[in-house]
Amino acid sequence: MVKLVKKTVKKVISKNKQYFVNIKRTVSDVDIEVSTGLKILNSIDNKIVSVFGTHNLEPRHPYYINCEETCYRLGVRGYAIMSGGGPGIMEASNTGATRANTVSIGFKAGLLKKEQLVNKKIFTHQLSFKYLFARRFCLAIKSDALVFYPGGYGTLNEFFEYVTLIQTGMVDPVPVICVNKEYWKGMFKWLKEKTLKENFIQQRHLDGIYFAETPQEVVKIIREKA
Predict the structure, then answer these.
(1) What is the pLDDT of residues 156-198, one digit of tens each?
(2) What's the whole-model pTM score?
(3) C-alpha distances in angstroms, 171 versus 32, 122, 140, 141, 166?
(4) Which of 110, 175, 182, 207 has a CB 3.0–4.6 Å from the CB of 225, allowing a cystine?
């Protein structure tokens, strides 16, 4: 058991070391990714809606169907749709955008192999990122609204990073929409009963977060608030 633990620790350190030892390469790679991502974003005149959610569901799942229809409805109204370019909710959003014949952006995580398998025909623009923090930055910095479908650690990571940036005034505020209130209610109950009650956040930090159930509700919020 001791040997197994040592082996696992060594592997983690090895992955980290490649970044902080090869400084010039790390900085150069990040520069290229962010620069390329921003050039793509600056070439798009449409308002952009970024969509987040789990990669782990099939096209027949209700979340997938809801997301595809939402992005189709946004697309026919002229919005560009951006996602992480992977399967699941991401694929649903870009599929809806393509069906609406609007701009469809996929900013993929290059080290996640599943994200490289999604059909290229559903993207008008795509880019593969090695660095997830650079990808998250590009996924939100020019977006007029952020839509979150149910998801796991990756989705929650994105949600809390963007909400934190808005809370601290580091970026412009945009509407943050959580789809399916039943899924999110436990987390927001905890935020209100713990973090808000203990004065770690203020009510105004929750006021820019909206809940929706249907594609029509998502579109309505974006049209009114974005």
Answers:
(1) 999 999 999 999 999 999 999 999 999 999 999 999 999 999 9
(2) 0.92
(3) 22, 29, 10, 8, 5
(4) 175
